[in-house]
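ARCHIVE RECORD
Type: protein–small molecule complex
Small molecule: zinc ion
Source of inputs: curated submission
Record status: active
Notes field left blank by submitter.
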Amino acid sequence: MTEITKHIGLDDTDSTRRGCTTYIAAVLVEKLTKLGATFVDYPSLVRLNPNVPWKTRGNGALCLRISHDDALELQIKEAVVSTVEKHSDLENKGTDPGVVFFNSARMPREIRDFAQNTITGISKIKDAKKLLRKYGGEAVAFKDGRGIIGALAAVGETFQSDHTFEVIAYRTPENYGTKRRVDETSILEMDKATKPNTFNNVDEERRRVIITPRGPDPILFGIRGESPEVVKNAFQIVKALEPVERWVVFRTNQGTDAHLRRVKELSQIRPYSSIIAKGSVSTPPRMIRGKHVIFSIKDLGSEVDCAAYEPTGVLRSVARKLIVGDQVEVYGGVRPGSSDRPLTINLEKIRLIKPASQVTYRNPVCLKCGARLKSMGKDKGFRCDKCRARYPTFTKTAVRVKRDVIRGLYMTSTRSQRHLTKPSSRYGMEKHRRGVESLVDEWHFP
Ligand code: ZN
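STRUCTURE (tokenized, with ligand):
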């Protein structure tokens, strides 16, 4: 009898019309526990680069980390593959599930790096396969097998730095597609009792609850927070008004900005990556169709466009107030250029580092009577209408105007934030290392 540590990665099982990879993970928590496996960590919910062109919905990949007797090897693999097969939307074009099995007590550096690359940029399926061969992992691919990329990335994300938790409650199948029934007052009460240790429960601008998704997926609601204890406690405050089939606590990279990679120069920006970059505003903001705001930034070598796409909200109103010369740091996903538009950063956040001084030019005042002078034409000086004095050599005087935007960090409103976006309430709460911890007593049901 030998005890084996096994990582099971899952990705790309869902579609916009059906399913959810976290649900498959939740079902497997029950099945693998019943088979006799022991979970050595909470299941990982790893959100991958939200800017890849072929993503499904939330672009979340999952990993289950268990320890088991080697005699269970086959039964475990069979349970995983059959569960993925049963709950994936295999008829949907673009749903290409992948499963990865990897036995190892420690995670090789190269697989951790592969995970980072898949969270911030684009990884190739052939690189995933190469790593699996090199380190002895096993992949099961359905259809074109693109899911293997995310599955391996979920395996390799071991959350050595900032991370969060989410408890997700699932509906019973007869309720799929119907309006979710959760007592709203209890959600507001939970939010009040647990924030800032939970986040993104309520859209503050519109006072609307956002823990319940819309759509046909099996999720009833999810609560995000800083620790397993916090999200479990919050979960107990919320009153579900329909049956909860199961619930699980996940360890996640949600709310951490893990997708954003800092680039030193604008010339290093690549299409489909998620970046943080500095530059100075080089064209005045302009409104385009759909009331989006576009402006350009430049550094010594290059220039790129930035777009605030939100129809309302803080980010767009700040973008409109920028002026040429403002030093900014921009955060967002990169859209490739085309024949009629350059590379564009879809903004998630803007930091105004150093506002440029804004100056207007005004006519000088009369030295004799103090009245504002009138121009006598370009380069011809000024005259006073009141006392008739003339000042042929006077020029306009520069006056500094107070800006109506101040330095600081601005972000999209809660309702339009991506899963990965670090909300303002989490600033200062980041985890810098993985603590030594044991799992809380009850982190799943059943
Ligand atoms: Zn005068």
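CURATOR ANNOTATION: Residues 366, 368-369, 371, 384, 386-387, 389 surround zinc ion (CB under 6 Å).
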